């Protein structure tokens, strides 16, 4: 069996699975409010040279066209809060210059 190209598998997961899951949720709960975590640089016009940006943008467009309240969230980066970070032990502590 021939494997699909990596971009095609990614598109299937990022676009088709998202829409299928959303349609199932709408059927179960018509008053659904949906929050989609997209990504900085998503292109809803479809003109980007980057495939991932076009796929994310198309996904946003399709979600916004569905009969539900939808919000698109485009984080540019995320970092864990100090409470979520694992503790630093002496063996993995950052190196610091020796005192002179």
Report on the structure:
With 100 residues, the protein is α+β, with helices and mostly antiparallel strands. The protein has a domain at 32-78. It contains 2 helices and 2 strands, in the order αβαβ. It has helices at residues 6-28, 51-65, and strands spanning 33-37, 69-73. A two-stranded parallel sheet has the order 1-2. β1, α2 (51-65) and β2 (69-73) form a beta-alpha-beta unit. α1 runs parallel beside α2 (51-65). Mean pLDDT is 80; it is low at 92-100.
Rounded mean pLDDT score? 80
What's the total number of strands? 2
**What proportion strand?**
5-15%
Total helix count?
2
Low-confidence stretches: 92-100
Judged by helices, strands and strand pairing, the structural class is: alpha+beta
State the helical fraction: 25-40%
The shape is globular
Distance between the termini: 64 Å
What is the spatial order of strands in the main beta sheet?
Answer: 1-2
Order of helices and strands: HEHE
In short:
38% of the residues lie in helices and 10% in strands. The chain is α+β, with helices and mostly antiparallel strands.
């Amino acid at each position: 069996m021939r494997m699909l190209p990596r971009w095609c598998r990614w598109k299937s997961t990022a676009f088709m699975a998202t829409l299928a899951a959303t349609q199932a949720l709408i059927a179960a709960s018509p008053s659904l409010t949906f929050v989609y975590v997209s990504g900085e640089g998503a292109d809803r016009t479809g003109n980007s040279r980057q495939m991932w940006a076009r796929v994310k943008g198309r996904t946003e467009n399709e979600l916004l066209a569905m009969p539900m309240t939808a919000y698109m969230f485009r984080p540019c980066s995320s970092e864990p809060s100090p409470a979520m970070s694992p503790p630093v032990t002496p063996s993995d502590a950052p190196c610091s210059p020796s005192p002179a």
